[in-house]
Amino acid sequence: MRYKSFRSPPLRLLFSLIGLVAAGLSSSCSSSSAQGTLIVDWTVNTTTDTAVCDQNIGWVVVELRDGYGRAIANHGPCHAFTTEFGGTGVGHYTLSAYLLNAGDDTTLSTVAPMPVEVSEDLTNTVSIDFPIPVAP
Q1: What b/e string do you get for 26-63 counting C-beta neighbours within 10 Å, with b at 16 or more?
Q2: Per residue in 27-71, pLDDT tens?
Q3: How far is CA 108 from CA 52, 117, 134, in A?
Q4: For residues 86 and 36, what is the distance between their CA atoms, to the nearest angstrom?
Q5: The sheet that has 123-130: what strands, in order across it?
Q6: Chain segment 95-131, per-residue pLDDT in tens
Q7: DSSP character at residue 2
Q8: Measured distance CA(115)–CA(90) in Å, rounded
Q9: How many whole angstroms separate alpha carbon 115 and alpha carbon 64?
């Protein structure tokens, strides 16, 4: 009975492939430590009137979720009209936001999940609006 000899690929080719894979892994690992800043500005019914916030609304909670579902949340008083995610890892996220009443126990409005991006060494700004009728 004859057996065909199995020839392994030349070692040079094998080491070249291993080198390419290692280079690809190291470049993807190094980009994960890159950071940027995301600023989220908001309005309430298209206005930044602090009287609207002071009389009717308590806090705004802004949440970022990465592709793995991990959440980063920031919150602030409505009348701040902005929050910042500084030192955030570069990548694509889903942003959601919630507007709470003055007692911070009821959600008055939400912003539908939307895609946002954090870029390396850059500051990206996203503007959102909570379209709820409120009396000044």
Answers
A1: eeeeeeeeeebbbebebebeeeebeebbeebbbbbbbb
A2: 333 346 899 999 999 999 899 999 888 877 889 999 999 999 999
A3: 13, 26, 10
A4: 7
A5: 82-89, 35-44, 123-130
A6: 999 999 888 788 999 999 999 999 999 999 999 999 8
A7: -
A8: 13
A9: 9
Contacts of 55 (CB under 8 A, 6+ apart): 102, 134, 135, 136
Read off the pTM: 0.72
Q: Please calculate the CA angle 46-95-62 and round it to the nearest 5 degrees.
A: 70
Dist CA 120 CA 88 (whole Å)? 9
The residues with which 41 forms a beta bridge, in sequence order, are 82, 127
Give the SS3 label for residue 18. Answer: helix
Token pair, residue 6, equals: 């199995």
